[in-house]
Amino acid sequence: MMISQFFVLSQRGDNIVFRDYRAEVPKGSTETFFRKVKFWKEDGNAEAPPIFNVDGVNYFHVKVVGLYFVATARVNVSPSLVLELLQRIARVIKDYLGVLNEDSFRKNFVLVYELLDEVIDFGYVQTTSTEVLKSYIFNEPIVVSPARLQPIDPAAIFTQGAKRMPGTAVTKSVVANDPGGRRREEIFVDIIEKISVTFSSSGYILTSEIDGTIQMKSYLSGNPEIRLALNEDLNIGRGGRSVYDYRSSSGSGVILDDCNFHESVRLDSFDSDRTLSLVPPDGEFPVMNYRMTQEFKPPFHVNTLIEEAGRLKAEVIIKIRAEFPSDIIANTITVQMPLPNYTSRASFELELGAAGQRTDFKESSKMLEWNLKKIVGGAEHTLRAKLTFSQEFHGNITKEAGPVSMTFTIPMYNVSKLQVKYLQIAKKSSSYNPYRWVRYVTQANSYVARI
Amino acid sequence: MAPPAASQRYPSPSQPSGKSEVSDLKTQLRQLAGSRAPGVDDSKRDLYKKVISYMTIGIDVSSVFGEMVMCSATSDIVLKKMCYLYVGNYAKGNPDLSLLTINFLQRDCKDEDPMIRGLALRSLCSLRVPNLVEYLVGPLGSGLKDNNSYVRTIAVTGVLKLYHISPSTCIDADFPPTLKSLMLHDSDAQVVANCLSALQEIWSLEASHSEEACREKESLLSKPVIYYFLNRIKDFNEWAQCLILELAVKYVPSDSNDIFDIMNLLEDRLQHANGAVVLATVKVFLQLTLSMTDVHQQVYERIKSPLLTLVSSGSPEQSYAILSHLHLLVVRAPFIFAADYKHFYCQYNEPSYVKKLKLEMLTAVANESNTYEIVTELCEYAANVDIAIARESIRAVGKIALQQYDVNAIVDRLLQFLEMEKDYVTAETLVLVKDLLRKYPQWSHDCISVVGGISSKNIQEPKGKAALIWMLGEYAQDMSDAPYILENLIENWEEEHSAEVRLHLLTAAMKCFFKRAPETQKALGIALAAGVADFHQDVHDRALFYYRVLQYDVHVAERVVSPPKQAVSVFADTQSSEIKDRIFDEFNSLSVIYQKPSYMFTDKEHRGPFEFSDELGNISITPEASSDIVPAQQYEANDKDLLLGIDEKDDNKGLSSNNGSAYSAPSLENSSNITSQLQELAISGPATSATTPQSSFGFDDLLGLGLSTAPAPTPSPPLLKLNPRAALDPGAFQQKWRQLPLSLTQECSVNPQGIAALTVPQSLIRHMQSHSIHCIASGGQSPNFKFFFFAQKESEPSNYLAECIINTSSAKAQIKVKADEQSTSQAFTTVFETALSKFGMP
């Protein structure tokens, strides 16, 4: 159950931090790892799996903000444990530095070493709780400007656009004080839902799933207890029925297939009134993860048409319609579609007066790409692409192209209808009234329409 | 600030630069060493940071060791920490200088501030310098008694570090018993957890030469200790919970109530957001219920949903780890997951390593009710832009067809693939159609008409080409232009780079010749001539062989090359069920990710000592396992020369060449064509008489695999003399136990006196030893005791290994025997039983 080394490498393979806990792995493990990941060719896969073995050394890695978080182990450890640990180390470091990127790492590497020494001793995990670690850590974080922040976590999208959100909050270190020395009393609860939908060529939903997280980040002093009330009509588990049995899910209420909870969550009254109580530890953590296959209304309807136009030409028409209320605005929408291999050129035609839209044909990957800055609920947008082929196509052109896939973010909207009814902070003083932010967001995980 | 800039200047850590910078640092540090000026700590911090930064990027800064130590006289804890980090990194290489640090570290170990005591103790133990261990014992002893839990946690791990530097010092200082008492009484959960991991490591390493350590290690698995941990599992953090759960896996419950108690205690762990906790819990549940079929199945139902949630909630890396475990369970119990097949559909943006797992899962869960949907979905992927996945998808369709569901529709779809006119799709499909025809000859009519229309010019890949050629030869009578297509291919012999394809051409030409001699004669002549002149040894040999056998007698040749074929009923599995069981036993470990048992990828020193409790139940080979495989292999071998690539998966991974384990039957190697041909001769009946003595040797050799299943054991086993002073080291035993097939399983009663004597298990060991049967490991608790024995023949170094489980309540012993020499295993078993029956007798 122990690891041998932990290190972080930049995208170019430079060591950012390196810690050897057990001195049992030969020198050069960072180079070995980087070469293997960079030039992975085994199994016909282009991408190195997160775990592989080179000369008896097991390498585990996760990629966070383009950095490689790597652990090595000699013994046959639990892979989930190590990968979970790597992810958790990244989160702890982010809690401290506020912003996680190569720059903040390099500026704070001494602090990072300090953390690593307390997180792991002789290869055994000691703690990954930001809260517990606080009492052992003495370096002050050197804060880098969040302007250069890459959106790594879903919550980062709140910093884009939406003006009512205090943009800096998610990039604030849990230990650093605001200018003026006073900490603002506030707590963030984010309901983040990633949806996966596959439409058949005739527009029917083949599969759909919602993977949701209730994420919390607390800046409350004195760690008060918090009660979080969810929908009263919330149900968990779908009996013995197949989870894809849509006919039986027409009843009202939110039905989760399954969920799990952070270890701080107490479920004493969850069965009776759907309330979670917890004393939130410092730092960011998921209160609850849930999974849902209950039918929901997909936010976008996609319609694709391919028409042959002569022997060397064809036209593709993609129509997307936003199926959500008009006071909701989706942003950063990308539509992609692989075109036939022999496509040599594509010219695009957007609708009249289209603004904030960009189109592209990626020659090397034969990929059509259509970006839209935003889509207002209820709106419909169309793209026409005229394709020129380098050779005559034979057979069925639809077998050579597609499927159409979409990515998007829809703030203040959630498809599952799961809600945080109220957020109660148990603190005696009547004047105590911290900021409470409950935010919803829906993102595409895999949103695919076959043609 | 300096560090980032510095690292850009030295992008390559191996670059032997930075010398002048290091000597600059040295000077500056020296200047600051004695200074007490205000702000000096800040300047020190900056310098220290530079040193650490150089260290990180691989520049050797060991030369400033003295200066760093001189500067360490400070109360600034941040500085101290950096200094400790530095010292820990370089002490090993500078044992003499390390002596300098002992002083200040020992002083810090007595500091008022528990933080400093802890940090100093940790650094002291991390020096890894053997000749300094004497300085560790004192501080460690007081650290273990410290009233601050932070210091105690560090001291416990310190004991383990000391053990790794000098085991004897650690044992002589009596640290393990101290840890044990802390483990059972300390109020701090992390101290307890660290004690557990330290003791597990120490006692495992000690167990190989100390009976006491062996007993202590077993005592960790006693009921009171296990419940002590399980009852307060929620006091521990998630990582320590994993540790406890791993311990609980090894516990042998006394009865079913015990099992249900544990499962009830751990039920809510399945709802944990940490995948490692959930998987460790799942493992406990699976292992506990192995003997209770119904409950075991309920466990599968229960864990399905939490695992699926974890797959979709974590990062792609985490879901991959969980999915690999789900994959294992799906392949083990496909029917339980049959209704959940949609969860294994691939998403377009998933990494290919995830897609590959999912395709295998889809193949496994396919049954009557879902095959149509699954195959429809797989056909979508066949047009995928990711060619590797497209190929895998086509193979998956083929594998499902071979599982016999809805073959009709699948054949239609496969034939549609051929119309897609993508070269890799065509190649993959041809290979599948070929396999399908071997299993379902009744489809030949439909397939052949489509296959006949494919131009061989459009197929570049050897595997696809070989498959097409095989079909041309096999179905020459149904394809009107088969001889001419073959002729065409033979005329281009020189341009055919793949030996595999040339081998197939030879065989196909022969087969075609037997069916349509006049049209093929010329082509066959050219092929044989080209083959005999071929530089490739196998091609040359085969051509020559065909030529000679034709010369001898055409009818014999036909019986040899193209005997009537039976349809293949089951294609040989790639992995033996023993290997699969081992991987299952190693659930929640890398074995599941690599799909190999740990001994295949872990080197000996890191495998840990002979894990007794791990072995319990692990090595249970179901008796059918070995007998199942043999006939399949024989059949496969029969056709092997014609179809070299039976198992694409294996070929692609290159497993057959690199595992080198005892499990790949030698006759399956591509290079041993001769053997398989000879075997073919032997099997085809009358021809046997014409074969050389060599061939009968090959025949015996192949059948040798099946000796253990020979129906009639040696009628009267000869008396076996055993070597009273036999020796075998545990590692060799372990390896043999894994590699040898199971020869015999026997159950016998143990007499009551023997059961009574078992209150001291050692007595059985001594008793068996007096019969020249030596114990290598033993364990268990009433009522179940388990022993591993070995013995050697007196005259030659031929080993017998035996596992003996004695249940004292039923007074039964179960014996499993493995032997180097299969033929005498019965004799050994008799000796063993006789010896056992005398146990307890005066």
TrEMBL record, chain A:
SUPFAM superfamilies: Second domain of Mu2 adaptin subunit (ap50) of ap2 adaptor, SNARE-like. The keyword rRNA processing does not apply. Pfam families: Adap_comp_sub (PF00928), Clat_adaptor_s (PF01217). Residues 184-450 form the MHD domain. Keywords: Golgi apparatus, Membrane, Protein transport, Transport. It is found in: Endomembrane system; Golgi apparatus. CDD domains: AP-4_Mu4_Cterm, AP4_Mu_N. The keyword Transport applies. Belongs to the adaptor complexes medium subunit family. This is AP-4 complex subunit mu. It comes from Camelina sativa. The gene is LOC104722531.
TrEMBL record, chain B:
It is found in: Endomembrane system. InterPro entries: AP_beta, AP_complex_bsu_1_2_4, ARM-like, ARM-type_fold, B-adaptin_app_sub_C, Clathrin/coatomer_adapt-like_N, TBP_dom_sf. Keywords: Membrane, Protein transport, Transport. Coiled coil: none annotated. Residues 9-25, 654-670 have a biased composition (Polar residues). It holds the Pfam family B2-adapt-app_C. Residues 1-25, 647-670 are annotated as: Disordered. Its main location: membrane. Residues 720-837 form the Beta-adaptin appendage C-terminal subdomain domain. It comes from the Eukaryota. Belongs to the adaptor complexes large subunit family. Subunit of clathrin-associated adaptor protein complex that plays a role in protein sorting in the late-Golgi/trans-Golgi network (TGN) and/or endosomes. The AP complexes mediate both the recruitment of clathrin to membranes and the recognition of sorting signals within the cytosolic tails of transmembrane cargo molecules. PANTHER family: ADAPTOR COMPLEX SUBUNIT BETA FAMILY MEMBER. Adaptor protein complexes are heterotetramers composed of two large adaptins (beta-type subunit and alpha-type or delta-type or epsilon-type or gamma-type subunit), a medium adaptin (mu-type subunit) and a small adaptin (sigma-type subunit). This is Beta-adaptin-like protein. It comes from Camelina sativa (False flax). The gene is LOC104769380.
